[in-house]
Amino acid sequence: MKSVLIAAMSALVISLLGTPAVVRLFRRRGYGQEIREDGPSSHAVKRGTPTMGGSVIIGATLIGYFVAHLFVAGQRGRGPTASALLVLGLMTALGLVGFLDDFIKIRKQRSLGLTAAAKFSGQLLTGVGFAVLALQFKNRHGLTPASTHLSFVRDYESIALGTVGFVVFAYLIVTATSNAVNLTDGLDGLASGTSVMVLASYVVIAFWEFGNACTRAGVNQASCYSARDPLDVALVAAAAMGACFGFLWWNASPAKIFMGDTGSLALGGLLAGIAIVTRTELLLIVLGGLFVIETISVILQVGAFKLTRKRIFNMAPVHHHFELAGWAENTVIVRFWIIAGLAVAFGLGVFYAEYLSAGPLG
């Protein structure tokens, strides 16, 4: 538990103290945000606000994770694990895709960066690469970072996807989650605040899986968990949570810096990777309920317009609908945070209820 706290606090301090320096650097270099011309008029004042702040989140997460390992160096079996390194690699790779997208926007002074084909190609390469590697690296118990079974709060042993099916499924999770966080990142602090809550839930879930791992002596085999490296994944989630907390201090309204696609794609990939290695892919839909709502609003808006030439919302994603309906930006943010918190609480409740039904109360 000490290492989890160290990871979170190290990343928090680095992000909190390092972000102002990055803001000054990006201002000098003119790395300012371009604003959608069809967006709410109140957003015009945000033009020029430094972007690509996700680089701070990525850096702080990596440093926080490895600093935590420095404090447990020398302890048997406590070095960096395959599961954690793969998740961090996925986060960094998608962050690079987002960085390229942000950089093109800045250089060409427009609100569109990479083409859709280029962005999806980057997600395809990183998602498939992660999925293939996650089925390698067996430990002494024969466990790999990911499994080929469909999972909710644990593997459904009766539903096997097969290697190819899992790779396709993992790619869809990575792409859907990274795009969902990207869509949510439209108001000051909305995506970073929501990510803090979901990451906090994964600290709890991964640590609970560690305490009830099937490989530990004396655990109830009916309700144990078969994740390969849950404690180390808890370190990753804690470091990312701390990094987002520190960044949120400067990203809260009125934002001094935006995370950009650099941060939103990285965080989405991180959440997808954590869900896969903790065997909770479908539970992520519940925990990330706000991300799901934002994505569905875009799908409905686009689908309705193509079919009927009419719009369901004033603007999609749905947070802009409420802005155009007259809600103040801070009102939208806080109320959406409440929705995100309720989704996380419900998801944790489902996770714990399943544990009770499978073991002590089953």
Give helix and strand order, one letter per element, not per position. Answer: HHHHEEHHHHHHHH
Q: Please mark out the parts with pLDDT under 50 across 5 or more consecutive residues, or reply none.
A: none
- The portion of residues assigned to helices is 55-70%
Mean pLDDT: 92
The profile of the biggest β sheet is: 2 strands, antiparallel
Main β-sheet, spatial strand arrangement: 1-2
Key phrases:
mainly alpha, 66% helix, 362 residues, 2% strand, 12 helices
Structure, explained:
The chain has 362 residues and is mainly alpha-helical. It has a domain at 81-229 and 258-358. It is built from 12 helices and 2 strands, in the order H-H-H-H-E-E-H-H-H-H-H-H-H-H. Strands 1-2 form a two-stranded antiparallel sheet. The two termini are 28 Å apart.
Summarize the structure.
The protein is an all-alpha fold and 362 residues long. It is built from twelve helices and two strands; from the N terminus they run ααααββαααααααα.
Please specify the SSE layout and strand pairing.
Layout: H1 2-29, H2 54-70, H3 82-108, H4 116-134, E1 149-151, E2 155-160, H5 162-184, H6 190-211, H7 230-251, H8 260-277, H9 283-287, H10 289-308, H11 318-324, H12 329-358
Antiparallel strand pairs: 1-2
Helix pairs in contact: 1-2, 1-7, 2-3, 2-7, 2-8, 3-4, 3-7, 3-8, 4-5, 5-8, 5-10, 6-7, 6-8, 6-12, 7-8
